[in-house]
Amino acid sequence: MNHQWKFFRAGGFDQVSLESASDLQNLKHLDQKLWVALSCPTTGIEFDARTLTLIDVDADGHIRANELIAAIDWASERLGYADVLAGDLPGVPLAAIKDDALISAAKDVLPAGETMISVELASSAEAAYTSRAEAAWQAAGAAAMPLGEATEAACAAVAAVKEKIDDYFVRCRLAQFDARSSDAMNVAEDTFKTLGASALVMDAEGVSALPLAKIVAAPVGAGDEIPSRVGDTPLEMDSGINPAWTARIAALRDMAITPLLGARAKLSEADWQAVQDQLAVYRTWVSAKPAGLPPEAQAVKDLERLARYVRDLMPLANNFVAFRGFYTRTSKAMFQIGTLYLDGRAAELCVSVHDAAKHASMASLSRMFMAYCDCVRGSERLHIAAAFTAGDTDQLMVGRNGVFYDRQGRDWDATITRLAEHPISLRQAFWSPYKRLARMISDQLQKMAASKAAGVDAQMGAVAATAPKPPPTAFDVGKFAGIFAAIGLAVGALGTVAAGVISGLLSLKWWQIPLAVGGLLMLISAPSIIIAWFKLQTRNLGPILDANGWAVNARARINIPFGTSLTQLAKLPEGAQRSLSDPYAEKETPWIIYLVVILVVVAAVAWFTR
Fold it and tell me: What is the C-alpha to C-alpha distance for residues 5 and 7, in angstroms, rounded to an integer?
């Protein structure tokens, strides 16, 4: 019988509703094209790191769809009734376990009268078993180290030359087997000619590949200073060694041969084997180091895994297969790592960032206004990207400081280091042309004033330093007449424009004047509003997460109403009392002054246009 799926629509697309254990168990049958995400990183998100490590079986730092399905199947096989997977429990109840080994392990770790194996309890039991196994292994180490702390260095010296020394003794045996092979076991003259034709270094590959020493077959039955068997040809460690291996043979002699066997100038094959035998105990001990729990306590480790899966699989699926908590605003998504407070706003869509430049190049496709911040808390550093989806951008600039609160409630000093600018709202888009015009005029006036002030200061300084005080000059009527004429022309031009606008408005009926003014404003603001509308309609969460290593599988739109809810604006508490009396408020200009100015302007217009 096919499973009956339920879907809800959020973010402009359908998402599967995961509410029951049956929903989890049937995820493997749900078309993965309907999953919101198919991969997520194990770092930079707010989720239990230990649980993610257990699910990430290939340890590649990502949770993929098949790994989540495998974790659900693993837990289901060990549960008598799987409903606990959707029970929002802190662990696994003893009554829900059907695996005998796990039941036995649970009874061993449960305090008297308790029936719930919590994640904390299971983790403590696992850590205790691991600690005991580690202690037992360490205790066995004393007998496994014939040279104490120097044993490890001796093993490393043996491993560095083992293959080459074994090769030497095999060649000697072949030469002993048949004297005709002696020449073949050594280096041919042509090989030396080839090497001599080029510049050599001591550890060149061609040199190190030559035999360790000259191969000589000892006469059958002949003795030696340290004979071990008939025909044995010891290795002279002080002379005749291939130059590429001299240092390593010296290290072998000093770190392993002499400490274990005593001083030797020659190494026989029997002595070589004796050294390896003495160090074999240490190698066996190292290889037996417990990576986790001993085999007899594996059930405790599985118990911890089961407790974590019962607690975490449903929340993980609802942050992976669907973004339920994020789009329903019932809980924080695991990619939301905290809240940034800045410029009278609280930005709730904050994600972790490793490389701001790389992240911004991808996240810019989301069409969201992103502020990249460096966060500092003592010696700790954190990099975040915060999405601003309400308010305006006037005071958002590089260098501004705010406070970032992570999901644990810790506060960080946050400084904006980079901006990815996009429209925030239609209101901002409406006023942006006028703000840009006002800013441009203000900047130009400031530049002109600064330039004139600088010029005047320079002239005054030069005159004061070099020129004598000039005699007073008579008033030049002609010069000032030209200035007044220029001013009159400027006023006339402005007056003509003003008169045209005023006369046009006065020619309209009273109810048409507001419509005309509104139409003029819309004519100016329309291009900005249209561009902003298209961008706001295409805002997408996917690129922000993809830039962090996610594989978002849906067009996770963030429309205007939902986006506005992600950034909270400052507002007074409900029922708060507000006093509008401001002792330092700027004094208002009496209305009569505005009336006089208007009359003067109208009179000037009438004069210059008659």
Answer: 7
On whether the CB atoms of residues 552 and 546 are closer than 8 A, the answer is yes
> Token pair for residue 262?
């005593």
Structural domains of the chain, count = 3
Q: How confident is the model at residue 16 (pLDDT cuts 50, 70, 90)?
A: very high
Query: Is 164 in a helix, a strand, or coil?
Result: helix
Cβ pair 56, 70 in contact under 8 A: no
Q: How far apart are CA 133 and CA 291, in angstroms?
A: 9
Cα–chain center distance at 500: 60
Identify whether residues 134 and 238 lie together within a single domain.
Answer: no
Among candidate residues 308, 292, 293, the one with its CA nearest the CA of residue 78: 308
* HEC secondary structure over 400-465: CEEEEEECCCCEEEEEEEEEECCCCCHHHHHHHHHHHHHHHHHHHHHHHHHHHHHHHHHHHHHHHH
Domain check: are 490 and 350 in the same one? yes
Highest mean pLDDT among 67-76, 299-308, 471-480, 556-565: 67-76
DSSP secondary structure code for residue 336 in this structure = -
Spatial contact of 151 and 282, defined as CB atoms under 8 Å apart: yes
CB contact at 8 A, 345 and 569? yes
- Tell me the C-alpha distance between 552 and 487, whole Å: 64
Q: Would you give the DSSP letter of residue 217?
A: P
DSSP one-letter string for 122-158: HHHHHHHHHHHHHHHHHHHHGGG-TTGGGHHHHHHHH
- Both 407 and 494 in one domain: the answer is yes
**Token pair for 593:** 């002054």
Residues 317 and 341 placed together within one structural domain of the fold: no
Task: Note whether 393 and 533 are same-domain residues.
Answer: yes
- Smallest CA-to-CA distance from 165 within 75, 54, 292, 252 is with 252
Answer yes or no: pTM beyond 0.85.
no
Structural element, H or E, at residue 543:
helix 542-546
Name residue, tokens 């995400």. Answer: 37
Q: For residue 160, is it within any domain? A: yes
Single residue among 282, 310, 328 that ends a domain in this structure: 328
At 400-432, the pLDDT tens digits run 999 999 999 999 999 999 999 888 877 776 667
Statement to judge: residues 191 and 322 lie in one domain: no
Measured CA to CA, the distance from residue 63 to residue 71 in angstroms comes to 11
Full residue range of the structural domain in which residue 168 is found: 148-267
Looking at the domain assignment, is residue 204 inside a domain?
yes
Q: Is 396:388 a contact under the CB 8 Å cutoff?
A: yes
Confirm if 245 and 211 have CB atoms less than 8 A apart: no
Residues 208 and 320 in one domain: no
Q: Please count the other Cβ atoms lying within 10 Å of the Cβ belonging to residue 201.
A: 9
384 and 517 together in one domain = yes
